[in-house]
Design goal:
The chain contains three helices and no strands.
């Protein structure tokens, strides 16, 4: 039963990676990265239960905290960045100075 849960988590992690690559906006990609991190924590918890290793739960908790701080830092970066403006002319045949 728990092997099926592990496979289902891996499938949702793959779908999150697809969304992170193909996301139409930056915020969709950040949300997909956050989902991937959350599913990683869940997978670590299931593996800890499967193998009887409660020390993996400490790793899952630490990873969840790192994921939270990382996602907040990325969102802060994208919120405060200055958008770049593309040049209007191509340079060819443009006599304006």
């Amino acid at each position: 039963m728990y092997y099926v849960v592990s496979i289902a988590i891996l499938v949702t992690m793959a779908l999150a990676l697809i969304r992170a690559v193909r996301g139409p906006s930056v915020y969709d990609r950040v949300l997909a990265a956050n989902m991937f991190g959350t599913k990683t924590v869940l997978l670590l918890s299931v593996v800890a239960f499967l193998f009887g290793r409660p020390d993996f739960l400490d790793l899952a908790l630490a990873y969840a905290l790192i994921n939270l701080v990382g996602i907040l830092a990325v969102l802060e970066f994208f919120q405060n960045r200055v958008p770049t403006v593309a040049p209007t002319g191509t340079g060819e045949g443009d006599n304006s100075v």
